[in-house]
Amino acid sequence: MKTYGEVFTPRYMVERMLDLVQADLETGPGFVDKTFLEPAAGDGNFLVAILRRKLRAIEKTIPDEQWTTESLFALASIYGIELLEDNHRDAHEAMLAEFVSFHESHDAPCGSGTSLREAATYLIATNIVRGDTLAGRDAQGEEIQFSWWHRIPAAPGMVQREPFTFASLREQHLFDFTVYESYQACNIDEVHKEVRANA
Predict the structure, then answer these.
(1) What percent of the chain has pLDDT over 90?
(2) Residue 99 in contact with residue 18, Cβ under 8 Å?
(3) What is the spatial distance between Cα 191 and Cα 184, in angstroms, rounded to a whole number?
C-alpha cells in the first residue's frame, strides 16, 4: 500500500535472514527463551517463521511430554509491533494457526476452549501489539508496553510476568515513573487468567 510504504519480505528471504541467527533460534542453550522483536511485523511472516523454527527445534530436542509447556514459552519469547489494523489482525491469526497446527499434528488437544489455546491466544495478543514503533505509542496513543515472561527455575512450567515499556529497550532511563500492573506467578498455560498480585 503506497500510503504506508508497505513492503512484504518474500518467504525465501525471511528464511535466509533467519539462517543467520539459527543457533539462537534452534540449537543454542536456552533457544526456547531467546527473545525476538519485529518492529514492523506486517502480516507476521517473520514472526511465524521464527515460531515455526522454534517449534521444530522443540520437537527435535525436547521430550514430547514437555512440548505444550515449551511451545508456550516459545510464543512468550516473540514480540512484534504493527501499525496497520488489518496486518495486525492477520499476524495474530497466522501465529495462532501455526501454533495450533503444530499441536494438532501431534494429537495434542488445542481446540477452542482448551487452556493451551487460551494461553497461546493471550500470549500472542500481549506480545504482538498494534502501534507505531517510531513514536513508541500503541493504537490508543499510550506508551507501548510488553511483558517479560520469566521462568521460575525451582518450579518448572511456572512463569512470572513482568511488564516493561518499549521505550526502556531503546533509551537509557535514569528514572522510570511508569506504574506497572504486578502479577502472581502461575503455570504458563494459565497466563490468560491474569491473576494480579494484589487481587
Answers:
(1) 74
(2) no
(3) 10
Q: In what order do the strands lie in the sheet with 186-187?
A: 145-151, 158-165, 186-187
Q: Of 7, 9, 37, which is closest to residue 168 (Cα–Cα)?
A: 37
Residues of the chain with pLDDT under 50: 1-2
Q: In what order do the strands lie in the sheet with 137-138?
A: 36-38, 78-82, 128-132, 137-138
**CA proximity to 96, closest of 68, 120, 115, 128:** 120
The DSSP-derived string for 75-91 is HHTEEEEESSHHHHHHH
Q: Which residues contact 87 (CB under 8 A, 6 or more apart)?
A: 6, 41, 42, 43, 44
- Integer-rounded Cα Rg, in Å, for the chain is 17
